[in-house]
Amino acid sequence: EVQLLESGGGLVQPGGSLRLSCAASGFTFSAYALSWVRQAPGKGLEWVSAISGGTVNTFYADFVRGRFTISRDNSKNTMYLQMNSLSAEDTAVYYCAKDHGWLPVYWGQGTLVTVSS
Amino acid sequence: ESVLTQSPGTLSLSPGERATLSCRASQSVSNNYLAWYQQKPGQAPRLLIYDASTRATGIPDRFSGSGSGTDFTLTISRLEPEDFAVYYCQHYGSSPRTFGQGTKVEIK
């Protein structure tokens, strides 16, 4: 059974940094691309970033490029999202997802990031 | 960047009725790489349809997807009580893999 467990969310001040983790199990981790998708309170889904499985290619939404960095450690079956220069607009639940091709198929339950002073 | 526009914003229907949701892309979606998701309050999204018209594993056949190019439709043939939720479309053929803003299907 595919399982994805996000962690690392919490309260951070504007301008601060946070690193999210997504621990995976139930599949051959290195063979699949993974994504981060976020959802601000009461709002819709926003695609944030994606990373390929093998040769590591990364992709970002314009609103996070240069501030967020996606990475993965295939030896630990874990994906990360390093988030810097956070603002209130980054407040959201952050979901990780296992992709088939570039299609998010399986989703974790999300971790809440709150940016506030 | 392809922008996805969903309509209507809210659909008020009764159980047993047919729901028709629209997703229009500002650019042609390559290979019809268009997906539909269902999301209920407090839950993660669930994949319903991919490649515009293929049902995901375990999705009931009352859900169907159609369309190509820039115009796509999700149809729920007869609404069940558990179908009242928010529905999102997403293209995944190129980056950024944007979502539509969502359509809420609510009980009339």
Write a concise keyword list for the protein shown above.
heterodimer, A: about 120 residues, mainly beta, seven-stranded mixed sheet, four-stranded antiparallel sheet, 11 strands, about 0% helix, B: about 110 residues, six-stranded mixed sheet, 10 strands, globular
Textual characterization of the structure:
The complex is a heterodimer of chains A (117) and B (108). By secondary structure, chain A is an all-beta fold. Chain A has no helices and eleven strands. Helix content of chain A is 0%, strand content 54%. In chain A, strands 2, 4, 5, 6, 9, 10 and 11 form a seven-stranded mixed sheet that branches. A four-stranded antiparallel sheet of chain A has the order 1-3-8-7, with no helix packed on it. In chain A, a hairpin with a 5-residue loop joins strand 4 (34-39) and strand 5. Chain A starts with a strand and ends with a strand. By secondary structure, chain B is an all-beta fold. In chain B, the strands form two sheets. In chain B, strands 2-10-9-4-5-6 form a six-stranded mixed sheet, with no helix packed on it. The interface between A and B is medium-sized, with 21 and 24 residues.
Provide the fold topology:
The complex is a heterodimer of chains A (117) and B (108).
Chain A: E1 3-7, E2 10-12, E3 18-25, E4 34-39, E5 45-51, E6 58-60, E7 68-73, E8 78-83, E9 92-100, E10 103-107, E11 111-115
Chain B: E1 4-7, E2 10-13, E3 19-25, E4 34-39, E5 46-50, E6 54-55, E7 63-68, E8 71-76, E9 86-91, E10 103-107
Parallel strand pairs in B: 2-10
Antiparallel strand pairs in B: 1-3, 3-8, 4-5, 4-9, 5-6, 7-8, 9-10
Biggest beta sheet attributes of chain B: 6 strands, mixed
So what's the overall shape of chain A? globular
Query: Counting H and I runs of at least 4 residues, what is the number of helices of chain A?
Result: 0
Percent of sequence in beta strands of chain B: over 45%
Oligomeric state of the chains?
heterodimer
Structural class of chain B: mainly beta
Annotation, overall tally of beta strands of chain B = 10
Helix share bin of chain B: under 10%
Order of the strands making up the biggest sheet of chain B = 2-10-9-4-5-6
